[in-house]
């Protein structure tokens, strides 16, 4: 299996990208292709004393920055690490692409270069969402599309369920729809319609989920449009950081509290780790015709390593093909429902 890494994507590229690749190579047997400026990447490998055979360099002299317009960058920077990497997936020389670059450009590039899976209207960014004392959930959509229709939310739920089952090993994952209340009658006309569609879909739909229940692990797959999803994600990050900072300030307030902090150090470290995005790997862009993982722009080697490791089951479990087949089956169900509705009407 060939894992393709965007060596120039991210705030700390190429150093942290290369370092993460070297760390991952010690834990997996698959080949890693780092795409980017060859001289810079080779210099980093030399600094780290890497002499193995798993890591390869694919030269690409252009870089898509965080300030670039997504569409223009993908179309004009054909020799960028992101475009070259995505083309490797399209051509079959790479099996999965990992990037910490411009999110908008990666979503646009994935759609333009790889194309959408037949039946998918809008690809979705599925971000890992930490839950208190429980296994993490995934949030779909975390920001790929700020607006969505009911059938988009249906697609999100189906794709998220497949990813959770085959990559995270979650049996019969619970799918929940973010809403104002748990009652079926709550929400906008769009969410009400989405509720009806998800209820009939081949997923373990548990109904509406209020935002306050999301961090408590009310479901394994959290379904919402990209605007709501991005707000939930960033609000959670902000609250988590604020609480940790508040706890830290209280524990440092006196000698007694400092002694207590020393005793609680392992627990506090574990708590911080639970909310650290770097521990969970990347966020897949589901719905495009090839495996793509997005990692945070400020990722360090730890996040890069974990994303590379997580990319292995994403590719080997044939998630893209499973989504493709599931969409064909879903279309049959939708057509049948429409026929029954027409007859009853």
How many E-type strands? 11
Cα radius of gyration in angstroms: 21 Å
> Helix coverage percent of residues?
40-55%
- Mean pLDDT across the residues is 91
CATH homology superfamily of the largest domain: Isopropylmalate Dehydrogenase
Structure description:
By secondary structure, the chain is of the alpha/beta class. The chain has two domains: 1-120 and 287-345, Isopropylmalate Dehydrogenase (3-Layer(aba) Sandwich), CATH 3.40.718.10; 133-278, Isopropylmalate Dehydrogenase, CATH 3.40.718.10. It is built from eleven helices and eleven strands. Strands 3-2-1-4-11-10-5-6-9-7-8 form an eleven-stranded mixed beta sheet, sandwiched between helices. α7 (189-200) links the parallel β7 and β8. α4 runs parallel beside α5, α6 (150-166) crosses α7 (189-200) and α8 packs antiparallel against α9 (255-274). The chain is globular. The termini are far apart. Mean pLDDT is 91; it is low at 338-345. Belongs to the PlsX family. It is an enzyme of class 2 (transferase). This is Phosphate acyltransferase. InterPro entries: FA_synthesis (IPR003664), Phospholipid_synth_PlsX-like (IPR012281).
